[in-house]
Amino acid sequence: MSENCGHDCGHCSEGSCAERSAPQKLEPNKDSKIKKVIAIVSGKGGVGKSLVTSLLACKMQKMGYKSAILDADITGPSIPESFGESDKRADVVEGKDLLEPVVTSSGIKLMSMNFLLQNENDPVVWRGPVISGAVKQFWTDVVWKDVDFMFVDMPPGTGDVPLTVFQSLPIDGIIVVSSPQQLVRVIVEKAVKMANMMNVPILGLIENMSYVKCPDCSKEIYVFGKSNIEGIAKTFGLPVLARIPMRPETSAHVDSGDIENLEVPELDEAAQKIKALL
Length: 278
Known about the structure:
Helix content is 30%, strand content 17%. The protein is of the alpha/beta class.
């Protein structure tokens, strides 16, 4: 660490800083036992991080594991809507300054900023440090109880919240989500390089909106151009865990809050990669 360090890693060019390499991890409360934590990240918004987060949590739950989602996208949460739980609010644990997560119909535990707002469409107008503090409290002040796999839905970019999550939570691995546009290549590289700087293992890449399959001939149609995910993966020596096509039923299930009944077989390999962490 430089003697002029201002403890703001987000604006620091010192890649091998000891402060960054050995951050202090936060412990969850004594009523929570969380085995593995996987962060779903990308360098930009709109590529489907929340969708992938939700689908992976559902898939692991269906495989018999206890799943949870920590929605770290404080100012733009979408997890409650996908699960049809947007009308729920988090309850305070009796006699304690702790919160109960919202539990879905299949048993997935959720914590999102929308569960704490009076109205789900109220904006959260906070500066970065306050947002980062909320993410930490979702980890320490929520009674998660027994969780096999916790998925952290990250906001886009490489700023305050990703830095807070990487430094403060015991991340066992991240999955980087992208889409086929050439512009995304640079953005994905930023996310991968940040993870490497923070010594966080990368499980692999998932490309969302990869193609549309013709219902008549099954030909793959590249709406956003030919995929370049294999090239990105080769550059960084990472596996491609899935290429998720665009399907009308995906939007229908998400919009109706029925994501737990959506089957996406393309994510089977990613689920096996996550399972292997235990």
